[in-house]
Specification:
By secondary structure, the protein is of the alpha/beta class. It has two domains: about 10-130, de novo design (two linked rop proteins) (Up-down Bundle), CATH 1.20.1440; about 140-290, Nucleotidyltransferase, domain 5. Helix content is about 60%, strand content about 10%. The protein has ten helices and seven strands. It starts with a strand and ends with a helix.
């Protein structure tokens, strides 16, 4: 899990962010004289006033105020946003700007979601939510942890020497859909290598994935099944080789911890392409660190052997 550099999102502050960025973009267009300033002479005041309204509305919503007062504040918050949205759409009708259009669309989205959630009591499905208007690829990931994380899942494949042989950032993808493409990449990138075993978590299990590994001639597929096992599956998962390789799988947790210490705990760069580059450089730093540790170990062993040999020679001379 690689965290993105975003604040904890609520639809209230995301709407404020959208309005703030829309008005900032509009200021630039007015300064360049491509858009008329008529009706927009108090942009700075509008941004400050709306931020103050955000604080008042958030206090009413999250601090246990009366239900009627809470709804009144939310309606006021939405009404002012709708007024700004309408004025922005008039500007867009006369002048097309991609950035301004993007943030105005976010205003429309969050107005709709706030109305549905806080006024109508509707639960918004996770797939409809946007968690950051700046890093819109950010996902809400909660894998049994108390605190959900905001970022993207990263699939890594390590070998017996703990080197990362393959990695993939999973943008809105599930674990179970990764085995086929992963085996294909490993076969293509390392054609002369023999994959003796492939060990995964339960989240990767499916009949198709297991069959894919068998078809790829992987000798030992260590893929625990979700749910109840059949007799044959139970026997397979309790074989000595399965248990031994399954126990070795926990080493990937230490690999993940090392990767986080190579800078991959939280990505501080902005933008999807920079996020992908950041992940790639962190994986490279991890592999360089592993290779460096092995070279240092070999050097120390060589020096130790040379020291023992020299010591033995002195004993012979003394005798």
């Amino acid at each position: 899990m690689v965290e993105t550099n975003v604040h904890f999102p609520t639809d209230l502050n995301l709407l404020n962010d959208s309005i703030r960025k829309s008005l900032s973009r509009l200021e630039k267009l007015i300064f360049k004289r491509v858009v008329s300033s008529q009706g927009w002479r108090k942009i700075k005041s509008t941004k400050n006033n709306y931020k103050s309204l955000l604080r008042a509305t958030s206090w009413a919503v999250f601090k246990g105020k009366r239900e009627d007062y809470k709804k009144a504040m939310v309606k006021k918050y939405i009404t002012q946003a709708q007024e700004i949205e309408l004025k922005l759409k008039i500007v867009l009708a006369n002048y097309q700007d991609e950035e301004l259009q993007k943030y105005t669309a976010y205003i429309t989205l969050f107005i709709n979601q706030i109305e549905r959630r806080l006024l109508n009591g509707e639960v918004i499905p996770a797939e409809e939510k946007v968690f950051s208007i700046f890093e819109d690829y950010t996902e809400w990931i909660n894998k049994g942890k108390r605190t959900p994380e905001l970022g993207n899942a990263l699939l890594i494949t390590t070998n017996q020497y703990h080197l990362i042989m393959d990695y993939k950032i999973m943008f809105k993808e599930k674990d179970a859909s990764q085995i086929g493409p992963l085996v294909g990449r490993l076969k293509a990138n390392y054609p002369s290598s023999i994959i003796d075993s492939l060990s995964t978590d339960k989240g990767f299990w499916s009949k198709d994935n297991f069959a894919c590994c068998v078809k790829a001639e992987i000798k030992n597929t260590i893929m625990p099944k979700k749910g109840k096992c059949t007799k044959a599956e139970y026997e397979r998962e309790h074989q000595e080789i399965f248990v031994r390789l399954r126990n070795k799988h926990s080493a990937v947790e230490s690999n993940i911890n090392m990767l986080e210490h190579r800078g991959l705990n939280r990505c501080m760069d902005k933008g999807k392409s920079h996020f992908e580059r950041y992940v790639g450089l962190s994986v490279l730093a991890y592999n360089v660190h592993i290779v460096g540790k092995e070279l240092v170990r070999r050097k120390l062993e060589k020096e130790k052997r040379a020291s023992k040999s020299a010591q033995g020679s002195r004993y012979k001379q003394a005798a």
